[in-house]
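So, can you check?
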Amino acid sequence: MTNTRNHVDDLRGASRLAIDATQGVTALVEEMHRTIAGGPDVLGRPLVGPAAALLAPIYGGIRAVTTLIGHGIDGALGQLAPVLGERAPAAEHEALLAVLNGVLGDYLQETGNPLAITMRLRQGGQPLAGALQDASRKLLVLVHGSCMNDLQWNRRGHDHGAALAQELGFTPVYLHYNTGLHVSTNGESFAALLEQLVTERPIDELVIVAHSMGGLVARSACWFGEVAGHAWRSKLTKLVCLGTPHDGAPLERGGNWIDVLLEVSRYSAPLARLGKIRSAGVTDLRFGNVRREDWEGRDRFAHAEDARVSLALPAGVKCHAIAGLRGVETSGEAGTDGLVPIGSALGRSEAPERELGFAESARWIAYETAHLDLLDSPQVYAKLLEWLR
């Protein structure tokens, strides 16, 4: 007996998958909506009960329609926009949008969803506009990591950019971008933004400090800048990467990267259930993809070997790498910062052709420092001062 596939059953299966995905997104959006509407923690979240009663029929309706016709992901996500504007504090608003983009950013952009973050350079959370007219000719660009935003460079009262500006005379600007897009997509856009910036105002020196995924985006931008012959590449003198998974992050292979990062805010915690449909940006972290050739034509969820094309550090730039280690100095290099292995952060690789070749004096380990702690560690800042003077 011949076993032939029934196309009607295939379509039914695909429809069920779409319905399941939609209902999953609906459930997490409802949970976030209830969390935000419940009121502040400091007051004991007094509106939790009323919010649940009010929202139940709204999301019940979405689920009912979804069950009937198999559509509604955008409708469910659309519920977030007014909620964020009405009740979430500004910092939480930005953090939630950053996480949502980190997890689903490629989908948001492809569907034209207004929640998708548009890449821009900012200061204080605002687009640059004319803010650089009287600025120093020494520019420091800070690039955040996956599921984060530019405001999160200020952590526990410390901002590496602001501190370096005060001590070394830099003008700090911060890249804000959709971390759910491919690293190479963001790298190309970042290169174009920098080219626009240097053509609009005189700049003598450009320095980039990047955290986590941001280091991959910066290296990708350098590649695109070189290929396009951009003027900003000759201005770039130093690149410092903090906890960047140059050779990949094992946690991504199980989607656990997202689970860790989403604990930053109670507003974003419900998104953890989306780990299995994580974005292109997150899957790029598996091996540390920086160019289109690293992922084009491949199933990014498949269990496959590292197929990256080797890409050296940018020529003519003093490149530095800092790795965090949650253990003490006696732990050596066998450990991680909780997300990124030390060897990966320092540009080492089991494949000799993928060794990045940071100078030994340009590699440094911050002991007893977790991945996010790299953003406000006094010892990390001291090393930045030493390298950037």
Notes: Residues 9-88 form one domain. The chain has a mean pLDDT of 78. DSSP finds 13 helices and ten strands in the chain.
